[in-house]
Design the sequence.
């Protein structure tokens, strides 16, 4: 149950979705449908899902490695306008930004390493797209070097269309390595 303890009621279209799993179930369908699985080729600073089928709910995972990476971010439908707003926590330190040209996941010194994360997006065409995601970045190998953590929430202020592609970008001139990958699932 979700309770609105303030005045008024939830708007039409509000909902609660609960997913579960039954090990005895033998059905062949799943709530999540894979929409994209794209690997990097080592020649671009952008890892692009390509065109995906528009779905109400999106779940994505990405792994990226590069010899140098900074200002890792997401874009939707290749939109480079100032339509993104985010709040992120990098190792517990919060920052916010509005009217950005991308939804930044984290930043730091331009060092190599790898990044892994997962996120969920509500993707209704008439509403701003809300995102929540969790990320881990490994700057240095070895047991003596702890990874960094990012928790990022954000929105894409587009109220006229659904997300039909997701780009993982970085601001350095070094390309994502060929072992980088982005996967996207969706459901209605």
Sequence:
């Amino acid at each position: 149950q979700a309770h609105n303890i303030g005045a008024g009621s939830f708007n039409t279209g509000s909902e609660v979705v609960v997913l579960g799993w039954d090990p005895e179930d033998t059905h062949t369908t799943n709530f999540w449908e894979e929409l994209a699985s794209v690997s990097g080729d080592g020649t671009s600073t952008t890892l692009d899902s390509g065109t995906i089928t528009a779905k109400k709910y999106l779940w994505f995972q990405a792994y990226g490695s590069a010899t140098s990476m900074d200002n890792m971010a997401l874009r939707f439908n290749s939109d480079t306008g100032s339509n993104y707003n985010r709040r992120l926590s990098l190792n517990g330190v919060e920052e916010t930004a509005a009217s950005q040209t991308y939804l930044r996941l984290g930043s730091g010194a331009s060092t190599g390493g790898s990044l892994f994360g997962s996120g969920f997006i509500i993707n209704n065409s008439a509403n701003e797209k809300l995102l929540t995601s969790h990320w881990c970045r490994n700057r240095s190998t070895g047991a003596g070097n702890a990874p960094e953590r990012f928790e990022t929430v954000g929105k894409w202020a587009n109220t006229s269309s659904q997300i039909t592609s997701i780009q993982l970008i970085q601001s350095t001139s070094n390309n994502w390595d060929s072992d980088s990958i982005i996967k996207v699932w969706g459901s209605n």
About this structure: The first strand starts at residue 33 and ends at 39. The mean pLDDT is 87. The chain is about 0% helix and 45% strand.
